[in-house]
Amino acid sequence: MRDIQTREDISFLMEAFYSKMLKDEEIGYIFTEVAKLDLEEHLPSLTNFWENMLLQPNGYKKNVMDIHLQLNAKEKLQPQHFERWLFLLTETVQENFQGKKAETMLSRANSIAAVMQIKINS
Length: 122
Ligand code: HEM
Known about the structure:
This protein has a single domain (7-120), classed as Globin-like, CATH 1.10.490. By secondary structure, the protein is an all-alpha fold. The N and C termini lie far apart (41 Å). The longest helix is centred in the last third of the chain and has 21 residues, at 100-120. It has helices at residues 7-22, 28-34, 39-54, 64-74, 79-96, 100-120. The chain binds protoporphyrin IX containing FE. Protoporphyrin IX containing FE (HEM) binds at residues 27, 30-31, 35, 37, 45-46, 49, 62, 64, 67-68, 71, 77, 81-82, 85, 109, 112-113, 116.
């Protein structure tokens, strides 16, 4: 298995991750019923976020914490939602890639999830 190397790799991962999340019993409704996402916009935004973090600066500068504080105001995000989100991301990455970038993606996601939970509870 190879490491994450290109924007296409990230885009592929985000599609696979969201196809798991959208049909997930625990968190699927947050995407489909609470946020009512337009995936045609959302998936490229997520790809920009991870490309900027893992591969090359691309000018991504949305405030990801604020986005989730607003989401949390609509629907309280629970510890089990974060656990499930991280479990599905980890599973998706490990099914497809192996290497330094793949590990960095998972460690960053874990750190961001930890900070997010502190912020939404303070
Ligand atoms: C309980 C866990 C989580 C849930 C249910 C969740 C759900 C969502 C939803 C519904 C949006 C879209 C909000 C909107 O545009 O109105 C969003 C955006 C986003 N999420 Fe999460 N999220 C979670 C955790 C995380 C974590 C831990 C990360 C860490 C990398 C993350 C990264 C992002 C990014 C980068 C965006 C913004 C994409 C953009 O528009 O540029 N999320 N999330």
